[in-house]
Amino acid sequence: MIKTREDALALDRDDPLAPLRDQFALPDGVIYLDGNSLGAQPRASAARAQQVIGAEWGEGLIRSWNTAGWFALPRRLGDKLATLIGGAPGETVVTDTISINLFKLLSAMLRHQAERAPERRVIVSDRSNFPTDLYIAQGLIEQLGGGYELRLIDDPADLPAALGADTAVAMITHVNYRTGYMHDMPAVTQLAHDAGALMLWDLAHSAGAVPVDLNGARADGAVGCTYKYLNGGPGSPAFVWVPQRHHAHFSQPLSGWWGHRAPFAMQPGFAPDPGIARFLCGTQPIVSMSMVECGLDVFLQTDMHAIRRKSLALTDAFVALVEARCAGRSLKLVTPRAHHQRGSQASFEHPHGYEVMQALIA
Fold it and tell me: Which of 231, 237, 277, 352 is positioned for an S-S bond with 295, CB 3.0–4.6 A?
């Protein structure tokens, strides 16, 4: 157990991931513990943004859609990101926001289920899910004109009973944003499939934080963001993953020109791209999307299992030190202690949590 600063420094000296620290820009004297909300800035990001603005846009102008690879960027970044989430090449695109991607993917899943099993009209999710997931589901149900239901569970143990012959989609966030509780992805996916439902995962607090194997779990689709653990920058584009086996029959409703099979043919009728590009919609934000690559390239220098080992060691040490030094101060750990149930965060409750946070920020 870490008891002193010297203990921690000794571990740092033996840390195989230590050289990666120099690839991030953090202010001197700042202890940053909020990467689950906004990741730190890769040092390469500023230079990359200047390259895009100054050289590719400023000098290359419209030619850069081809010469700088702008048009292929969503798929190229998607293939890099796929290596972190257990996806195959051609199954992931970086685009839009989690909310928009969730709308696209959930719509596609409900439409597919309506075609093959119209009696399935229930979306199962978690009441403690991040609100935007629930808002998108509620809004989509309204758009569909009724007949659909959002069924919420209050505890992970309630999930088996909530899944049934009427379930179309199980929509679950892999790691809970408040507590850090991590679902068993293969087991939950199997539960959904056994009930005849499709499995949609939100990886907002998983991608770049814990090892994920979507194909190994046989998931049916996933969304996630890049501005947290993947260090893409504030408001950086999100991503959507769909396995190859579903490309032909998942049709999303935002049929913009970037999702067309021949976008520059300028045809009056929409024909979706045969692959993952069908989940693109309009012209992409190239400047912010380019910076996403800087964070991904850091991850490609190591592997998620090494990152996971360090994450667990850090959170174990943090929890132990907080509980030892703050005993009797009404702090309650709400993150599971068991490694297999914990993401890459440690969350505590306190009767005056807001005031404590304001003091830490100050």
Answer: 231
DSSP state for residue 41 in the 8-state scheme: E
Residue ranges of domains in the chain, CATH in brackets: 5-43+303-361 (3.90.1150.10), 64-299 (3.40.640.10)
CA 136 to CA 83: how far, in whole Å?
Answer: 28
Alpha helices in the chain (DSSP H): 5-13, 44-50, 64-67, 73-85, 98-116, 131-143, 159-162, 185-194, 214-217, 286-299, 304-325, 353-361
Other beta carbons within 10 Å of 201? 26
Residue 172 in 3-state DSSP? strand
Element (H, E) at 25: strand 24-25
Per-residue b or e along 206-229, where b marks 16 or more CB atoms closer than 10 Å to that residue's CB: bbbbbbbebbebbbbbbbbbbbbb
Per-residue pLDDT tens digits for 146-174? 799 999 999 999 999 999 999 999 999 99
**Cβ atoms of residues 310 and 323 within 8 Å:** no
Per the listing, tokens 């099979």 go with 261
Tell me the C-alpha to C-alpha distance, in Å, between residue 270 and each of 71, 95, 247, 265, 319.
Answer: 19, 20, 16, 11, 54
With 0.90 as the threshold, say if the pTM is over it.
Answer: yes
For all residues of the chain together, what is the average pLDDT?
A: 97
Residues 169, 198: contact at Cβ < 8 Å?
A: yes
CB distance 180 to 210 below 8 Å = no
The sign of the dihedral angle between the CA atoms of 227, 233, 235, 237 is negative
All residues at 6 or more sequence positions from 297 whose CB lies less than 8 Å from its CB, including other chains:
42, 44, 80
Tens of pLDDT, residues 331-346:
999 999 999 999 999 9
- For range 29-41, the mean pLDDT: 94
d(CA 9, CA 19): 14
Distance between CA atoms of 98 and 226, rounded to whole angstroms?
10
Sequence-ordered list of residues with C-beta below 8 angstroms from that of 26, at least 6 positions apart, any chain: 32, 40, 41
